[in-house]
Amino acid sequence: MPKKIALILGVGAKDGIGGALCDKAAGEGYHVVAVGRTEDKLNIVSEIIRKNGGSITPLVADLAKEQEIIKVFDKLDTMTETLSFVTYNAGNNFREETLKMDSKFFEEAWRICCFGGFIAGREAARRLSALGEGSILFTGATASLRSRPPFVAFASAKAGLRAVASGLAREFNPLGVHVAHVIIDCLLYTSPSPRDQRGSRMPSSA
Predict the structure, then answer these.
(1) What is the pTM of this model?
(2) DSSP string of the chain?
(3) pLDDT tens string 155-170
């Protein structure tokens, strides 16, 4: 039986949330498609996954741009595996004082933290709802719930992403697609043995 695909959007350093999600998905038997802005970082994550016996396709894309996200999903459509699990994890911790903030900075935060999530969620929902199954997760932060300086741009974008997730859940849960927004505010611990001592929290790939 062909493997199912876990698409992880927003993969940076191997010790970040994106890298940990890739490792976990590979350990659960998924073929991982890892998407990030930096080829060198993706190559490091890919090397670790393959060394541990997993399979992965790294793709470089700017998740602030609609057409680049659509190209990622078009690539998935050509693969033999079936999309099953999608996580949108893109977004830096944009920090700037309001009186020093220009509109370009604010829009950049919105594009990567919110707009990209909407495009990815839309394209994922289009495919998963046709299958009648699958999961879409969005990673958030405390800023998704409340704003404080100097994170006004970041918080507004993350709140928008939470609203996108909420709307998608109400629209696509009845069609068999699980949609969730997960707030993660912590230091990330990754075990020296990537797949040991971690409980399963992902849906089975079988």
Answers:
(1) 0.89
(2) -PPEEEEEE---STTSHHHHHHHHHHHTTPEEEEEES-HHHHHHHHHHHHHTT-EEEEEE--TTSHHHHHHHHHHHHTSSSEEEEEEE---------GGG--HHHHHHHHIIIIIHHHHHHHHHHHHHHHHT--EEEEEE-GGGT---TT-HHHHHHHHHHHHHHHHHHHHHGGGT-EEEEEE--SPPP--SSTTSS----S----
(3) 999 999 999 999 999 9
